[in-house]
Amino acid sequence: MKIVRKQQRKIEVDLFAVFHLLWKRKWAIIASGLISSIIVVLVTVLFVTPLYSASVTLYANNSNSSDINTSITSQDISASVQLVDTYAAIILSDPVLDQVIELNGLDISGQELLDCIEITSVNNTEVFKITVDYSSPDKAANIANSIASIAPIKIADIVEGCSVKIVSNAKVPTDTSFPSKKMALLIGMVIGVAISVLTIFITSLLDTRIKDESDLQEWDFPVLGVIPAFSKAEKVGAYGYGYGKKGDRLE
């Protein structure tokens, strides 16, 4: 059964033939997916450095007044939200990063530490989160907490009339954030299935053998006759002139 047929000088894909072809080789496809998943997971575990994520949450306020009677307006909140980007730029500056490196005794450059830090606003509010991805869970938490302790002082020195407070400190992560074994398993399965399906399609398209009369009819070749498939006949002692099982002569 061919998956591609020629009909009136047009090439058409027989979806039923495609499904039938894949169904016949379903076990090969499943096996390919499982083998590929195992390979990807092994490569991930053996050769990819795991990363741990630790996050600290800060609150940005555009006023450093300590008067409890001071009311906060919607304009203050809007200004605080806009200041999050400004605070992020200050936190990711070289003076802050160099101080964090020195405080934690890290043997990396400021650019390498910068690549490990991500700052995001929480639901577009004046609360923002600093996430640190590092190969050590303890160092990931220590770096995040160091940034949280240094950032308010540095921001207060640069930006007048504002303050930053710590909402929650970072905890030592127990699970890796990258790579995910479940994601590696899924990716391996997809790769294995895709490779096996593609191989089956290419093999079928390159197979030019004639398997039945429909393969000739689709190319406008006349069919003179068809040899039926016979089941294996019961063996006898001889054909034509010969002797049967009991020694009787057969004609």
What would you note in describing this structure?
The protein is of the alpha+beta class and 251 residues long. Helices cover 47% and strands 16% of the residues. It has eight helices and eight strands; from the N terminus they run ββααβαααββαβααββ. It has helices spanning 15-24, 26-47, 74-91, 94-104, 110-114, 137-158, 181-206, 213-217; strands spanning 4-7, 10-13, 52-61, 117-121, 127-134, 163-168, 242-243, 249-250. Helix 2 (26-47) crosses helix 7 and helix 4 (94-104) packs across helix 6. The radius of gyration is 36 Å and the shape is elongated.
Name a few traits of the molecule:
47% helix, 251 residues, 8 strands, elongated
The tally of helices reads 8
Described by the principal axes of the CA atoms, the overall outline is elongated
Count of individual beta strands: 8
Instruction: State the oligomer.
Output: single chain
Structural class: alpha+beta
Largest sheet: 4 strands, antiparallel
Q: Which residues form runs of ≥5 with pLDDT under 50?
A: 64-70, 238-244
Estimated helix fraction? 40-55%
Strand percentage lies at 15-25%
Strand order of the largest sheet: 4-5-3-6
H/E order of the elements? EEHHEHHHEEHEHHEE
Average of pLDDT: 78
Distance between the termini: 43 Å
Radius of gyration: 36 Å
